Amino acid sequence: MKGSISMYILGISDLYHDSAAALVCNGEIIAAAQEERFTRVKHDANIPVNAMRYCLRQGGIKASELKAVVYYDQPLLTLDRFLKNSLALGDDAGDLVDHVYNNLFSRKIWLHKQIETAIGGLGEHGKLLVVKHHVSHAASAFYPSPYEKSVVLTIDGVGEWTTTAIGVGDGNILKLYEEIKYPHSIGLMYSAFTYFCGFKVNSGDYKFMGLAPYGKPIYYNIIKEKIIDIRDDGSYCLNLEYFEYHKGRTMINEEKFYELFHSRRRKPESKITQREMDIAASVQKITEEIIILLAHYAKKKYGEGIDNLCLAGGVALNCVANGKLQKSGIFKNIWIQPAAGDSGGALGSALYTYYNYYKMERIVNKADSQKGSLLGPEFSTEDILNYLEEYGYPYHLYTDNKEKTKLVAKLLSQEKIIGILQGRMEFGPRALGNRSILADCRSPYMQSKINLKIKYRESFRPFAPVVLEEKQKEYFDLPCDSPYMLKVGNVQTSRRIPFELEQLLYNTEGDMLKIVSEPRSDIPAVTHVDYSARIQTVDSLRNKELHDILLEYEKLTGCAVLVNTSFNVRGEPIVCTPKDSYECFMRTDIDVLIMENIVLYKEEQPKFLEEQDWREKYALD
Amino acid sequence: MHWTNKSEKENIKRWAGEYFTDKMKKQYLPMPDSVKESYWCKYDGNRDIVDYNFETISEMEKILQEELKEDFYEDLILHIAVAAFKEKEIIQIDENINKNNQTLDSDINNFTIPEFIYTF
Fold first, then answer.
1. Is the CB of residue A127 less than 8 Å away from at least one CB of chain B?
2. SS in 3 state form for A539-570?
3. Which residues of chain B from 37 to 96 reach within 8 Å of chain A, CB to CB?
4. Along chain A (621 residues), what's the average pLDDT of each consecutive run of 10 residues?
5. Domain range A8-139+338-371, CATH architecture
6. Smallest Cβ distance to B116: which of A113, A157, A195?
7. How many contacts (CB atoms, under 8 Å) link A and B?
8. Do B84 and A110 touch (CB under 8 A)?
9. Under an 8 A CB cutoff, do A246 and B13 touch?
10. Which of A230, A419, A454, A474 lies 20 to 30 Å (CA to CA) from residue A175?
11. How far is residue B41's CA from residue B45's CA, in Å, rounded to a whole number?
12. CA nearest neighbour of A86 among A97, A73, A98, A100
């Protein structure tokens, strides 16, 4: 890619959630990675020194060869919001100032110097460029999408002043037209309820969504009546009496929530009760309702003659809502940025700079330009062998790739649980087959086994199916592909087994371990209690290795679906290197580790001793 | 406003208390309003991408004046710039670490997300 006409742009996101860097050359995505994968600190929000350096290495360039370095947020607009928020609180602003001051004044305001220091320059442009937060999100969704023209919707916690925005992308031009402003945020409301139900803000939102199918939305009316005012055009306003985040405190006003729900916040890690399940169901229903209304409004006002919608922002990771939006048919086609949260802002800011700032021509790729989101580091067989030889770990090297693929399929059919590292690491929160744990989805015990003995996480959490794209309709009723695991559909009716959730909740006194062990379909490990599934379709173009494994597995078993979950334990970032992979393999009940063409069996490995207990290393998320 | 010798952080708190009005509260922390037909706001697409650079307090004051235009910011801007430059010392230490090509993990990278508070 090097040459006099190559225009390299480095995009960066950090200091909020999930720091990341992305390198774009002439509009092509060369590399992108989250900092957490290198530092092994989940959701690492620090300056992504390692990710930036990786991107430059992958591009084969130095910082001086960059055309520009760009940041995904405008610090002075954030400062403006902070000051006006303080002003609106008056004498009550103390906690907010204490909470925000240090990070804002020592880090965010100085990010141009920090970035320059970290990579040794700011490229030919010489000054850091900063792009508005929601423009970065919108750009991350529109530019890699397969659409020439599209309506764009961004829904986030908050970025500068904006929490929700609507725009249109056309060719290389992207413009936002309307916004909903802080402190009114569906993302922050969702996080507030996540907090109330005893999960961590941000990282727990996904669990909260997974909990929703266990409950009934009995709080739907009361939340709409007391907490959020929703209009027919999808715009909304929160009753701030119920929240504290705008005061720099915890998310909610505990007393007001107590008045409404007649109970206190659930203590983290304590037993999940029917109340939390019902709250999750209610908040999920409201979130889906807002997203559908937003899409209707966007289509009506800006989408005449446009069949395409692009989505980004943290709320776009709500794959249940995404699935319902797809089914609604408001837009025929929907493309969601796989790194929809803040990490994707790094990519969006770089792409926006290339197309909007430098006004370069955009060529649309009909599949999309995200490259399967396989944009991170990769390791050669030689790299892996060097690591294994250094420590003397026994392995089997396969020179014939087909033979290895057949072996993997056979082991999976024997209900072996396999950790797999192959090709480039995924960009975004989902493991899409290159840093994954794969398993047989037909066993009714697989869900609880992987949750409790491999991932060490809550038993209620469902696993995602990866399915051959060409066989998807035999298993699921999603009316489109889902290559990035961002849409939820239902298991086909013909595959379901009658399952009385309410009765089971009563009989087991809410013991989720027993509930998830009850088969719900002929692919029980990936069928949630409401028959839903977070689907990943795989095609040979985006991930040939995984596609081949599924083909071989189907030949052996007649089933074209596997469990695909991220290769990590609870609280740990997804593995990046052979070392990370081996350590995770040895800390858990994973049976076999595959690293490129190298196979390691657990029973052949020496006893694994570590100086520090990994459970102390990774805080529970 | 009369600025004291207290830290800039305390002065921002005082400034907020002194300039607070009910109108400010309604404007920046608005509540549901049954009269409003919609909560959508027109998006200001100017300055979606801008240069971000300053080296000195006066340069910083200048970019703050471009961004923070309201009257109530008038005598705050210098103090904001001073606050930022006081904090800059932390960065200078980090620069030295980087020059020595050491890992930045334990020094520059010590910002952690509060577990139960949203990071703005």
1. yes
2. CCCCCHHHHHHHHHHHHHHCCCEEEEEECCCC
3. 37-43, 45, 47-54, 63-64, 67-68, 72-73, 76, 80, 83-84, 86-88, 90-91, 94-95
4. 76 92 98 97 92 97 96 97 97 94 90 92 96 98 98 96 98 98 96 94 88 95 98 97 93 96 93 94 98 98 97 96 96 98 97 98 96 97 97 97 97 96 97 97 88 81 94 95 96 93 85 83 94 96 96 98 95 96 95 98 94 77 76
5. 2-Layer Sandwich (3.30)
6. A195
7. 236
8. yes
9. no
10. A230
11. 12
12. A97
In words, the CATH class of domain A381-617 is alpha beta
Which of helix, strand or coil describes residue B62?
Answer: helix
DSSP secondary-structure letter at A214?
A: G
Tokens matching residue A237: 């306003």
By the 8 A CB rule, do A312 and A140 touch?
A: yes
**Separation CA B113–CA A16 (nearest Å):** 8
Structure tokens at A454: 């491999």
**How is residue A249 written in tokens?**
């405190």
DSSP strand pairing (A236-238 vs A228-230):
antiparallel
One-letter identity of residue A467: V
Q: Which residues in chain B have Cβ-Cβ distances shorter than 8 Å to A237?
A: 30-33, 36, 39
Nearest partner of A350 among A66, A542, A159, A157, judged by Cα: A66
For residue B73, the chain A residue with the least C-alpha distance is: A83
CA-nearest residue to A202 within chain B is B118
CA–CA gap between residue A270 and residue A34 (Å, rounded): 31
- Dist CA A155 CA A315 (whole Å): 5
Scan for tokens 């909007």, then name that residue: A356
Amino acid making up residue B53: N
* Span between the terminal Cα atoms of chain A, in Å: 40
C-alpha distances in angstroms, A137 versus A72, A73, A128, A152, A342?
A: 8, 10, 18, 10, 8
3-state class (DSSP) for residue A32: strand
User: Max CA-CA distance within chain B?
Assistant: 61
A62: its two tokens: 């130095």
DSSP A102-139: HHIIIIITTHHHHHHHHHT--TTT-SEEEE-HHHHHHH
Helices B8-19 and A94-103: crossing angle in degrees, nearest 10, is: 140
∠ CA A233-A237-A241, rounded to 5°: 160
CA distance to partner chain A, nearest, from residue B3 (Å) = 16
Contact A45, A201 (CB under 8 A): no
Give the residue among B113, B42, B83 at the shortest CA–CA distance from A79.
B83
Helices (H) and strands (E) in chain B, counts: 5, 2
CA distance B56 to A484: 46
Q: Enumerate the β-bridge partners of residue A29.
A: A24
Residue extents of the structural domains in chain B: 8-88
The tokens describing A258, both together, are: 């107590």
Residues in chain A: 621
Asked if A71 is an interface residue toward chain B (Cβ–Cβ < 8 A), one would say: yes
Could you tell me the pTM of the whole model?
Answer: 0.94
- Encoded tokens for A563: 């469990």
Q: Mean pLDDT, to the nearest integer, of B106-117?
A: 56
Q: Which of residues 591-620 of A touch B (CB under 8 A)?
A: 619
Q: What is the pLDDT of residue B4?
A: 60
Residues of B in contact with A46 (CB under 8 A): 108-111
CA proximity to A443, closest of A587, A557, A551: A557
The answer to whether A62 contacts chain B (CB < 8 Å) is no
Q: Distance (Å) from the C-alpha of residue B57 to the closest C-alpha of chain A?
A: 12
B35 contacts chain A (CB < 8 A): no
- Check whether B89 has a pLDDT greater than 70: no
For residues A219 and A281, give the distance between their C-alpha atoms in angstroms, rounded to a whole number: 8
ipTM, interface predicted TM-score of the complex: 0.93
Return the residue in A14, A87, A224 with the most chain B beta carbons within 10 A, the one to mutate for interface testing.
A87
